[in-house]
Each structure stands twice: as C-alpha cells, then as structure tokens.
Amino acid sequence: MARRNSKADPLPREVGVLAIVAFVVALGFGVVAPAIPLFVRDYGVGTTAVGFAISAFAFFRFLSAFGGGALVERLGERVVLAAGLAIVAVTSGAAGLAGNFPLFVALRAAGGIGSAMFTVAALSLLLRTAPAAHRGRAAATYQGGFILGGIAGPAAGGFLAEISPRVPFFVYAAFLLVAGSVALVLLRPAALRPVDPPVTPAVDPGGGGEPSTAAVPPPGTDGGGLRVALRSRAYLAALVANLGVGWVLFGVRNSLVPLYVTEELGKTVAWAGAGLLAGSVAQALGLLRAGRLSDNWGRRPSLLVGTGLATTSIAVLVLPPTTAAFLLAMAAFGLGASFLASVPAAIVGDVSPARGGKAVAVFQMVADLGAVAGPLAAGWLTDTYSFQVAFAVSAGVLGLGFLAALSMPRTVTPA
User: Fold this and answer.
1) Phi, psi angle pair for 159, to nearest 5°
2) Which residues have CB under 8 Å from 281's CB, separation 6+?
3) How high is the pLDDT of residue 379?
4) What is the rounded CA–CA span in Å between residue 163 and residue 90?
5) Which residues constitute the domain of residue 114?
6) C-alpha torsion angle, residues 106, 65, 119, 313 (rounded to 10)
C-alpha cells in the first residue's frame, strides 16, 4: 500500500526545479519587455503597430495552448517543456536580428506558440508530481519563481536597452536556453511519475463533502481528460477565477493603472510604479501562506478569500480617486492574487487525470483570453465612459469567480 502523504513532507524535487526554470524564464521576459516598444519604433511604425507586435505573442500563445496540451498527453511534459523553451529562445534571438517589422511580428508570434508549450507542460508536470496534500504549496512555489523573476527583469532590461534595443533579445534567448538545459538535466524522465496512487480522492460532484474515488485513466483514453474535468464544478470555478486573473492581473493592471495614476490622480508615473510594486510585494509575501491555507484549510474557502479580496480591492478604485485608496487597493489586490496564483491551479490538479494536458491547456487559455480581452474592453470603457466604469466591469469579472467558488462543493484534500 502506498504511503499517504503527510503535510510535513517536503515538496518533490521537481517543484524546486520548475520554480528555478520559472524564475529564469520570467527574468528573461522582464529583460526584453522594456525593449520591445523601442525596438519596434526603430522600424518607423506608429503606436498601434507597437501594440500589435506585443499582442501577437499573447494571441498566438492563446491559439496554440490547446495543441500544446495535446502534445503533453502524447509526448510527455519534459519533451514539450524543453521544445517550447527552445522555440522561444530561437525566435527571440532571431527577432533581435529582424530587419523589418513583418518579420519581427512573425517571429514574436512563433515565440507565443513555444511559450504556450512551455507553460502548459510545466504546469501539467507540477500538478502531476506534487502530492494532492501539497498542490497548493507547490503551485505557490512555482508562481513565486515567476514573480521574483518578473520583479528583477525589467530593471536589467531597461539598462540593456540603453546599450541597444537588440541586446535584450539576445540576453532573453540565452536565459531561455539556460532554463531549457536545466529542465533537461534536472527533470530526469525516471523521476517524472505521479506521486499519488492510482485511486485518487476527488471532489464530490454532489457537493456532500465526502471524497469520491475514481481510478485515474491512462493518458489519452476516453475515460478521463478534459471531459471529466468539465463535469466538475470545482474545475469550472477554477476556470472562471483564472479568467479574472488574466483580465486584471495580466491585463488591466498593466494597461490601465498607469494611465489612471497620471490622468485621474494627477500623479507621476513613479506613483504608478509604487502601486504596482506594492501589489507585487504583497503577492510575493502572501504566496506560500496562501498555498498552505489551500492545502490545510481547503480549496473552496481559500478561493473565496482570494476572489473576494481581489474583487473588493478593484471595486475600491470605483470610488472617488485618492492616492491612499489606490495604494491600499493595489496591496490588497496583491494579497488576493497570492491566493489566485495557487488555489485554482491546485484545483485543476485535483480534478485532472495523471497527465491532464488538455485540462491544463484550457485553464491557461482562459487566462490568456482575459489578458487579451481585458485591456481592450477596459480601454474602450475608459474612452467611452470613465476609468471608474472600466474598473467596475473589471471588478465584476473578478466577482464572477467569487460566485463560481460559492457554487463549488466542499473539496476534500487528501492528507
């Protein structure tokens, strides 16, 4: 009989490796982000073209995520993860050498495909190797790598862009090659096996709070995968919550908040940076605690806390604008985001089969959809009505996650 996992057990080695890979990838992405507008401007194009060049990466990442999930189920996470990083590395290095705007956009679009492959494979592997009793903490550790890399990268990127807008692309490519090499060397194929037994406690579909047991089907069979996940209210709640994450955390926060600070509050861009930094620090500090609460307290109450905090914090921005309220809202949103970075992913691991690449892919796709649609919708609402209306709609999207969490049955986390 397999030994039951204790909450005092350390996380599997693969979680630490994936966190390191996430840090290196985010560091490289942060390095290249400030250089893209400057680089594209050198082609003699306008602001709209700059936005198109940036969105091409996200759009093709969204389109290819489901295909990446199918590859994971067919080839395995390790191969798809390394291949995805290699694609982004090659296309990023080539983009730094691109001699015209259409070629640059095409290379960035191809990079989005590789990014989708990496993201889906890494999250699928994380959820498959982490014991159910530690999935919240494992997801928090993994996301922590992204956050720390994302904080450190832009500062270095700004310095490198001063040397030449092309340099950050080469540095980004080098970072990705390092991350891919780390993954290939340290993620040994023999170690990549599910840690839970073939019969896994799952969410009770009827909501009675008792664990149901179902044999985990082999990858690619008709018995499991996305269709099983879509019948789970817990999985649907995770999807709705992740849509809000993409809409606000990856979209509106970066596109609308700086304009709100300068145009509505009448402050400098430095104050916008202070607010975003406050949110990032709060999220980083809260991540591990949120992951532990998810494992010990339960997925449903943890998701309610995360969506509730995030919704309330953005709703504060609907009130008459003040600097103090803005800074408080950003910090509170960061705390809510610490739950939303770990709890929905842990839920996906609870309801997906041993290798649920497609279930993970759809989970990632809804966040990408929010990241693409959120800035567009919020920008239109601001131009047509006001910042307050845009923030109210964004709070409503996050609020849908709270309502979906209320509809979840009580989840039973195996000890």
Assistant:
1) -65, -45
2) 331, 334
3) 86
4) 22
5) 13-191
6) 100
255-263: average pLDDT: 86
Q: What's the CATH number where 302 sits?
A: 1.20.1250.20
Backbone angles phi, psi at 202, to 5 degrees: -135, 180
In the chain, how many domains are there? 2
**How far apart are the C-alpha atoms of 269 and 253, rounded to whole Å?**
14
User: Residue 199's beta-bridge partner residues?
Assistant: 215
Residue 405 DSSP SS3: helix
CA distance 236 to 229: 8
- The pLDDT tens digits of the residues spanning 335-346 come to 999 999 999 999
Query: Nearest CA to 355 among 176, 190, 214, 221?
Result: 221
Q: Tell me the pLDDT band of 207, cut-offs 50, 70 and 90.
A: very low
Residues 156, 231 within the same domain? no
Task: Report the predicted TM-score, pTM, of the whole model to 2 decimal places.
Answer: 0.83
Give residue 252's pLDDT.
87
Separation between Cα atoms, residue 294 and residue 271, nearest integer Å:
33
